[in-house]
Amino acid sequence: MHEAMKIIAKVYLRDTINKCLKTNKTNIEHSRDYLSISNDLIPSEFASIHCSTFLLGITSYVDDIIRTLLNEIFICYPEKLGKTSFTASDIIEYDDINLYDILGDMAKKRINEILYKNVSEQLKYLEKEVLESELRPELVDNIIEIKATRNLIAHGEKKYTKAYDIQTGGKNRNRIGEDISVSYDYLNECVSSVECFISEIETKVKKAYLIDKKDVLRELWEKSRLGKIMNYETAWDYHNEKIPRPSEAMRNFTWSHSETQVKELFLCIYGGVRNSDLDIKYYFERWPTHTFEGEMLLCWLQRQFYF
User: Fold this and answer.
1) What pTM did the predictor assign?
2) Mean pLDDT, to the nearest integer, of 39-62?
3) Domain residue spans in the chain?
4) Please, what's the b/e burial string for 71-99 (b: 16 or more CB within 10 A of its CB; e: otherwise)?
5) I want to staple 250 with a disulfide (CB 3.0 to 4.6 A). Which of 46, 91, 168, 235 is the partner?
């Protein structure tokens, strides 16, 4: 069950993660531009608090990427959630059972459990369970140190503490007891590290997860009733490498009335509702949501995509 949901979720996964990475990449580029001029604009007596506040800002980009990545992966691949504290009583609270909503809440609980761990454990989890490959060790050390420094500032510490030393695994910039120092040079190094982090995450995620929409279309077609009657290559033309087009064979084939409605759904996915004669009421009467075809329409209505 829920095969259609998992397939369609891949498109949403791709778009959401792409948007997150693009936004944070733009943010960090603007941060670098701002740093280049702020040294001359901020009075020296405010430099320390300004630099500390700036560090809190750029570490939030790392937090946002980790949280977004985990959330979308968990919804698309629920098996990666593992054991959670989500119970039957949690599900009973829903007035209308929507699997995406339930998975979303389960994902939030699991993410909070993961983000409660220290940064080193968060990144190890990300490498093993999500990226399925390791980040460069020196990059991991840099991100851990940045986040450890951020934690000191967020908790109002004035000096480097034993907790900082433990979090960085001894690979720290300063000794325990020294005053916390966040300079413009340090911030530039932080910006470079976060840029590298975003770039490396982007490369690994694309390799592991970012499936193309036309691959999703193929999966849906081949698992549907129509795929058992007409193969994908016959049903869809690829005159344009980027966009599959409904073939004349698919359009003109003598489908049954209920099969025609599934064909109309595929035409919706291809060109939008205006290009289709989809009858949603009849569709669900013939293809209940426990069928692949019914689930496909339900999930597509919740997370629509087009060519």
Assistant:
1) 0.72
2) 82
3) 3-208, 213-302
4) bbbbbbbbeebeeeebeeeeeeeeeeeeb
5) 235
